[in-house]
């Protein structure tokens, strides 16, 4: 089995544990396009010639561009915040305040990693004013991911990072590309709507539009799209006509430890064999 590379960020819904299954489902191609790159586990654990990695989170994309261009300078600055005196509630809220006030991309990138590793459950969440508002996590000794940052930087030389919407990412796809979509997942119930990580969140309408965009680009432009989501009747209805397969996966982000059960994961592949008659 191939050794898997961990991302340097903690991330809700990260795909590290799912990579063996994902690799089996991803089509071959020259370039992988990820409209929802997140922590980048799929990017780190696949071998395409090139990558177009997109996200609407400006802080995330800004961080990746800096890690790609100046990893050693970034590591030196970020490491300085990973010490005992900075692993305290007052220090955390001070850095969070500085992050929210800063306009400097490098400083924000350094603070972002600190907040990611010291904040509650590695969540990335903003309020309506666009301010990062995740509370302190109270961890004994937060890990500084130096080797993971270096590995990401090396692989990133094959990648282009863009802060754009998934629709814009689709428009940039060309022949020979493969698209992998890891959107905020559809809620398991009407009360389980913990999907808002950036901005106004990803609505059920957005889920349906993503399915439609995927269908069109596969049928009309011959570009295959793989989407992962919860395996529930809603998503099976949305992805009608795509090739559907179920995978078991451990959920790590949960309000309660008892909620960390295995949930069925759905892999929906749109390609040139998409069954248009399924929509009639």
UniProtKB/TrEMBL annotation:
Keywords, in A-Z order: DNA replication, DNA-binding, Methyltransferase, S-adenosyl-L-methionine, Transferase
Binding site for S-adenosyl-L-methionine: 11, 15, 55, 182
Keyword Zinc-finger listed: no
Catalytic class of the enzyme: transferase
Cleavable signal peptide: none
GO term, biological process aspect, one: mismatch repair
Listed EC numbers: 2.1.1.72
GO molecular function, one term: S-adenosyl-L-methionine binding
Pfam families: MethyltransfD12
Record's keyword annotation contains Ribosomal protein: no
InterPro entries xrefs: Ade_MeTrfase_dom_2, DNA_methylase_N6_adenine_CS, M_m6A_EcoRV, MeTrfase_D12, SAM-dependent_MTases_sf
Catalytic activity annotation: a 2'-deoxyadenosine in DNA + S-adenosyl-L-methionine = an N(6)-methyl-2'-deoxyadenosine in DNA + S-adenosyl-L-homocysteine + H(+)
NCBIfam families: dam (TIGR00571)
Protein family per UniProt: Belongs to the N(4)/N(6)-methyltransferase family.
Protein name (record): Site-specific DNA-methyltransferase (adenine-specific)
């Amino acid at each position: 089995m191939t050794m898997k590379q961990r991302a340097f960020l903690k991330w809700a819904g990260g795909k590290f544990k799912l990579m063996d299954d994902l690799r089996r489902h991803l089509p071959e191609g020259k370039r992988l396009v990820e409209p929802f790159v997140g922590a980048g586990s799929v990017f780190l654990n696949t071998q395409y010639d090139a990558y177009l990695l997109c996200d609407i989170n400006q802080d995330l994309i800004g961080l990746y561009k800096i890690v790609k261009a100046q990893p050693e300078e970034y590591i030196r600055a970020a490491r300085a915040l990973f010490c005992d005196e900075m692993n305290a509630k007052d220090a955390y809220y001070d850095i969070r305040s500085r992050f929210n006030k800063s306009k400097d991309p490098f400083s924000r990138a350094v603070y972002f990693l600190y907040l990611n590793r010291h904040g509650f459950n590695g969540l990335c969440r903003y309020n309506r004013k666009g301010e990062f508002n995740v509370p302190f996590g109270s961890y004994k000794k937060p890990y500084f991911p130096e080797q993971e940052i270096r590995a990401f930087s090396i692989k990133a030389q094959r990648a282009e990072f863009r802060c754009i919407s998934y629709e814009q990412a689709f428009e940039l796809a060309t022949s020979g590309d493969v698209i992998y979509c890891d959107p905020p997942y559809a809620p398991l119930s009407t009360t389980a709507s913990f999907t808002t990580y950036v901005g106004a969140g990803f609505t059920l309408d957005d889920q349906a539009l993503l399915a439609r965009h995927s269908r069109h680009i596969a049928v009309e432009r011959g570009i295959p799209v793989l989407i992962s989501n919860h395996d529930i009747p809603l998503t099976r209805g949305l992805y009608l006509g795509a090739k559907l397969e179920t995978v078991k996966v451990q959920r790590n982000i949960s309000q309660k430890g008892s909620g960390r059960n295995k949930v069925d994961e759905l892999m929906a592949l749109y390609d040139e064999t998409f069954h248009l008659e399924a929509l009639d």
